[in-house]
Specification:
about 190 residues; Rna Polymerase Sigma Factor, Chain: A; elongated; Arc Repressor Mutant, subunit A
């Protein structure tokens, strides 16, 4: 979404245009949910945080600073809500749920070899992500899963771009090391690369 369209939708939503608010939600709901699911590892927490984040963002649109991207602001709200939710729920990674995100609906009734290969690779990546610090995991997910540029991640994380690059680099090294220590997971990831 372009910044001019984003600004127009926000201004219309502030004036009470429900269609504009709905377009903002549609534009960011899937990526915010995928991000929160990767960060929290729990679908129930991710759903609650996403819903609460949109409610808070839409009720406080008059406070939005147009110098920033709406997605950055929304993800910041969600991150704060997640920190609060962590006080209530201990994160537990459910690879089946996390691995299912991004697919087109439910799994087919007959698993194909390709589905199994993809599922195994996702489980291996989930395993490697659990070995990262919270900051590294968040940066890796934002960069690789959501395709955020380094500058946007730096703005969102409130850290210099060089620090983001360092976390990303170190996170990749730690993930690679975790996969190399676990031969089965390494084999699943290599199978995708063939």
């Amino acid at each position: 979404m372009t910044r001019s369209l984003e600004r127009r939708l926000i201004e219309q939503a502030i004036l009470g245009d429900k269609n504009a608010a709905e377009q903002l939600i549609r534009a960011h709901q899937a990526s915010l949910y995928a991000y929160m699911l990767r960060i929290s590892g729990r679908s129930d927490v991710a759903e609650d945080v996403v819903q609460d984040a949109f409610v808070r963002a839409l009720t406080n649109l008059t406070r939005f600073d147009f110098r920033f991207r709406f997605s950055t602001w929304l993800f910041t709200i969600a991150k704060r809500l997640h920190v609060n939710a962590c006080q209530k729920h201990k994160p537990a990674y459910d690879s089946d749920v996390v691995g299912g995100i991004g697919g087109g609906g439910g799994p087919p009734s007959t698993r194909t070899v390709e589905d199994e290969v993809t599922e195994n690779a996702k489980a291996a990546i989930d395993y490697a992500l659990t070995g990262l610090s919270e900051e590294q995991r968040e940066i890796v997910v934002l960069f690789h899963q959501l395709d955020w540029p380094i500058a946007q991640i730096a703005e969102y994380m409130d850290m210099p771009e060089g620090t983001v690059k360092s976390h990303l680099h170190r996170g990749r090294i730690r993930m690679r090391a975790a996969l190399q220590e676990h031969r089965e997971h390494l084999a699943h990831v290599e199978e995708v690369w063939r």
